[in-house]
Every structure is written in C-alpha cells, then in structure tokens.
Specification:
By secondary structure, the protein is an all-alpha fold. The chain has two domains: 89 residues, RNA polymerase sigma factor, region 2, helix turn helix motif (Rna Polymerase Sigma Factor, Chain: A, Orthogonal Bundle), CATH 1.10.1740; 88 residues, Winged helix-like DNA-binding domain superfamily/Winged helix DNA-binding domain (Arc Repressor Mutant, subunit A, Orthogonal Bundle). The chain is 62% helix and 0% strand. Helix 2 crosses helix 3 and helix 2 crosses helix 6. The radius of gyration is 20 Å and the shape is elongated.
C-alpha cells in the first residue's frame, strides 16, 4: 500500500503552517526552526519587552525561549497549536527572569475599569502597542511608549502576564485557561482585574500629567 501523499510537499517553507514546520524540524529539518524564529521575531520580541520591561533582557529571554522550544520539542503534542505553546513558554521564561531580578510589584485592584477607552478613542489594549503613532496634539510615540511601560511595570506580574498574553495571542478565555493551566473562572477574574489595573494606572498617570501642565 502506497504511503499517503504529503499535501504540503510542494508548499514553500515560508507558507507552511507553524505545526507542519515544527514537525519537520523535529524530524531533522533545522531550516524549519529558523523560519519559525523569523516568523515570530517581531511579535514575540514586542511581547517580551512589555513583559520584562527591558529590551536587552527581552533579547536574552527570546533566545532562552527558543532554546526551550528545542529542548522540549519531543514533548510537543502535535494536536495542539504551536503559537500558544510558544507564548506560554516565553511567558514562563520572562517570569523566571523577573524572579531572578527580585522584582515585587503591588497595586490596589479595587478600582473599576474607567470606561471602554481613553479620551482620544483609544482602548487600553491599543495602548499596549509599541511605537504606535500618537494622535495629534497628544504624546509622541516615545513618550507614550515609556508611559505605557511604566504603568505595566506597576502591575503584579500575573496580571501583566495575562493581559499581554490575551492581547498578543487574542485567545479565547478557554484557550488561555488551557495554556496557563488555570480554571476558566480564574482567567476571567484575572483578565478583568488586569484591565482594571492597567486602566487605573493609565488614568492616574494622565491625571498627574494634566495637573503638571495646567
């Protein structure tokens, strides 16, 4: 009986799904891992910059992440998606980095979310983008980026992590629960608290800035 035909046999590497690339890497095609690294370089790096708060450290954690991908390749369940697995490993490596630095952040999470968006129409999630062009007569890119990072740095690590994972992965609650190994209700409460925390911190910083310039 003839072996089943590989439906991706003639597909260029750059167009292959993540899971097919990773499966081929596990079977010995080292080029496929390079394609995955290049595919996720910008997105994963931006995520790590926001998570660890330092570009140099983000580069180190990026490398540690793909080293762990290599070391754990045999254990990857090919029935799962590669992208959530990658970001979960990156989050774990970022958490390890912060733990080594001994960071401890606290913030009162009792304040409610301050509305669906900011004065200029941006949502709080929009503010998480790096190098996002600012609206006219508002903060320039560098200053806005620095303020967003300052707000994130004040958040407890588990809330910052789930906010960034939800934003960068755009996963459903169920997928986040599976990836982080926590109950669905915990995902909902943590994400709500994370958005509230970010909203509270951003609004407080904006208010302080307005008072300083008035």
């Amino acid at each position: 009986m003839a072996a089943p035909k590989d439906k991706h046999r003639d597909t260029p590497l750059q167009d292959l799904p993540d899971e097919v690339l990773f499966d081929r890497y596990r079977k010995g095609d080292l080029t496929c891992l390079r394609v995955l690294i290049d595919r996720y370089r910008d997105e994963l790096y931006r995520f790590l910059v926001r998570l660890v708060g330092d570009r140099t450290a983000a580069e180190d954690v990026f490398q540690e992440t793909f080293l762990q991908i290599h070391l754990s390749s045999a254990s990857f369940d090919m029935e799962r998606r590669f992208r959530p697995w990658l970001f979960t490993i990156a989050a774990n490596k970022g958490r390890d980095h912060l733990r080594r630095k001994g960071r401890r952040q606290t913030l009162d999470l009792s304040a409610p979310v301050g509305g669906a968006g900011s004065e200029d129409g941006l949502t709080y999630v929009d503010l998480l983008k790096i190098n996002m062009p600012g609206p006219e007569n508002r903060l320039d890119e560098a200053e806005r980026d620095a303020r967003v990072q300052q707000v994130l740095e004040a958040m407890p690590p588990m809330l910052k992590e789930i906010l960034l994972l939800a934003y960068f992965q755009r996963l459903s609650y169920a997928n986040i629960a599976e990836d982080l190994g926590i109950p669905l209700g915990t995902v909902k409460s943590r994400l709500h608290a994370a958005v509230a925390s970010f909203a509270q911190g951003w609004n407080r910083m904006e208010a302080n800035s307005d008072r300083a310039t008035s």
